[in-house]
Amino acid sequence: MEEKKLAIIATKGTLDWAYPPFILASTAAALGYETEVFFTFYGLQLLKKQLNLKVSPLGNPGMPMPMGMDKWFPILLTALPGMEAMMTAMMKKKMADKGVASLEELRELCQEAEVRLIACQMTVDLFDMDANDFIDGIEFAGAARFFEFAGESDICLYI
Amino acid sequence: MANFDEELDASGLNCPLPILRAKKALAGMDSGKVLRIVATDPGSVKDFEAFAKQTGNELLESGEEGGKFVFLIKKA
Fold first, then answer.
1. What is the pLDDT of residue B20?
2. Which chain B residue shows the shortest CA-CA distance from A110?
3. Closest of B16, B70, B7, B33 to residue A31, by C-alpha
4. pLDDT tens digit at each of 76 positions of chain B
5. Where are the alpha helices (DSSP H) in A12-137?
6. Which homologous superfamily does the CATH classification assign to the domain defined by B6-74?
7. pLDDT tens-place string over residues A58-80
8. In this predicted complex, what is the ipTM?
């Protein structure tokens, strides 16, 4: 069977949006796809050794909230201090209860399956990030490097 | 249910973990050997069909046993 290729650009650095790139990349690898993920801007948070990602109900009307709060809770109150921490803790607990993998686990599975993880060098420079804060086994490169692979990919996703 | 060589319990795991674990288990098996997978994720029924189709490993059986989903996959 000829090997298919999947290229993903991961641009978001929140707990909820961290899942799609890692779920799709690890699954594609399991199906035999050669897979690359290019992390840019806030997506770079997903490559940090210490993941400290959060999910916010603020400006996120589609997010189901506990106790039906999304139905009656005034939208302004989602901006209260502590809301983000509370929602993040609840989301993590829900995921663990439902047997959804942790991000660390999915990321490791990606690396085990030889998914290539590429950090955008420009973003690293722009935000004065420290290369030592990132996990091992990743590559630092630019947009041209992404197109080298994406140009030959069968599927290309922007997340 | 037919014979099998190895077994994987993916109960309680959600998408995409059953598939990833199955892939890993199959990687350590010889061609022609059969892996039995037990899962509780309802999505795994369609997922294992798709997995078999795309990887060439044969899905010998797919069914339900005691409220769990059971699959037999033969390594290509």
1. 94
2. B20
3. B16
4. 578 999 999 999 999 999 999 999 999 999 999 999 999 999 999 999 999 999 999 999 999 999 999 999 999 9
5. 15-30, 69-72, 83-97, 103-112, 121-126
6. TusA-like domain (3.30.110.40)
7. 888 888 877 777 777 777 788 88
8. 0.82
Chain A contact set for B12 (CB, 8 A): 99
Q: Which residue of A has its CA nearest to B41?
A: A99
A143 touches chain B (CB under 8 A): no
Residue B66 appears among annotated catalytic residues: no
What is the separation of C-alpha A156 from the centre of its chain, rounded to a whole number of angstroms?
A: 16
List domains and CATH numbers for chain A. 5-55+102-158 (3.40.1260.10)
Nearest CB among A1, A27, A100 relative to B19 is that of A27
Q: Which residues pair with B72 in a beta bridge?
A: B36, B61
Please name the member of B22, B40, B55 whose beta carbon is closest to the beta carbon of A32: B55
Cross-chain residue pair A99–B14, CB shorter than 8 Å: yes
